[in-house]
Amino acid sequence: MKENKKIFIYGGIIGLIGAILMKLGNPGNMGICVACFYRDIAGALGLHRAEVVQYIRPEIIGFIFGGLLAAIIGGEFKSRGGSSPIIRFVLAVFLMFGALVFLGCPLRMILRLANGDLNAIFGLLGYILGIYIGIQFLKKGYSLGRSTEQTKTSAYIIPIFSIILLLFLILKPEFIFFSTEGPGSMTAPIFIALILGIVAGFILQRSRICTAGGFRDAMLIKDYHFLWGLLGIFIFNLIGNLIFNFDTFHISFENQPVAHTNQLWNFLGMVLTGICSILLGGCPLRQTILASEGDSDAGITVLGLIVGAAFAHNFQIASSPEGATLNGKIAVIIGLILVILIGNSVVKNAQKDRKEKEEVF
């Protein structure tokens, strides 16, 4: 119970930070959204040209800085990776497709619920189903292989990338794009957002909070430890919204910021996100923190998320408040088929390897 209380408080701090960032200027129901923030960064770098979602989000930079600091202090910063990088990249791209059809990462799904957005219920149900499907692959032996020690250089690539992003954000060179309207123009003050991101990143690294991991452990091994962290995020964000954002708090399906009411695709988008999160070994938030610790597999995943966000807007896959697009619906269906094929293929290879080892012995 002591550990559960601790992770509940850790999650609560993350939830409060989300409410504060929204109060300070971040888009409605989007104090923190890892998928949306990577989408904005992709736009700022010119990887897509959707002018309303282009901004280098300092919160992401803060997550990486905070995770790096916590990992160094805890002696956990280690260069590792080499576990099926191409598969991880593809899964990350389709994870982003699912998230942007829903219009939010799993963390934003919780924050949307905490501000009264009932559309997120369908996203939550889809996410849980996706995680359940992913667990069936785990039970059959799904694994992308063990990470091995890598050169030290690879461990620093994502932290160095985040430093470059921070310089671009501060210096604002002409080749970086910034929204003048829409969600990309709604921002908390840079250095406050950066500091709050560092605090969140530090806590997330120490606590190991993962939205996918919380539901996975509860269903697979009846361990509810991480669910306490998710509950803390929800409750403290709800309290924070009632204190700081009461003027925008309303319980409804309609007129929710950066959301749509096409419930089938809210559901299916998050089914895809849930499966991919399990097959990758963590949700987008967890992958970001792992990348800050020197995990190059997570670093590949982060790059896949950024590329996926660019594709989602260049190919009109991302939804809008009007609903899911035709291309978005097609991408989700293709994604569901593809990731299930990937899962089955990896399982078959694992079973084949196991059988060969048994024959040897």
What is the share of helical residues?
A: 55-70%
The residue-averaged pLDDT reads 96
CA(first)-CA(last) distance: 44 Å
Alpha-beta classification: mainly alpha
Output the helix-strand order.
HHHEHHHEHHHHHHHH
Number of helices: 14
Could you say which overall geometry the principal axes of the C-alpha atoms support? globular
Give the spatial strand order of the biggest sheet: 1-2
Work out the number of β strands: 2
The residue ranges in which pLDDT falls below 50 over 5 or more consecutive positions are none
- What's the main sheet like? 2 strands, antiparallel
Number of spatially distinct domains: 1
What share of the residues does DSSP label as strand, in percent?
A: under 5%
Question: What is Rg?
Answer: 19 Å
Relevant terms:
single chain; 361 residues; two-stranded antiparallel sheet; 14 helices; globular
How is this structure best described in words?
- This protein has 361 residues and is mainly α.
- It has one domain.
- Helices cover 68% and strands 1% of the residues.
- The protein has helices at 2-23, 34-44, 58-73, 85-102, 106-114, 119-139, 152-171, 190-207, 211-221, 225-244, 263-280, 284-292, 296-314, 326-360; strands at 80-81, 148-149.
- The chain has a two-stranded antiparallel ribbon.
- The chain is globular and about 65 Å long.
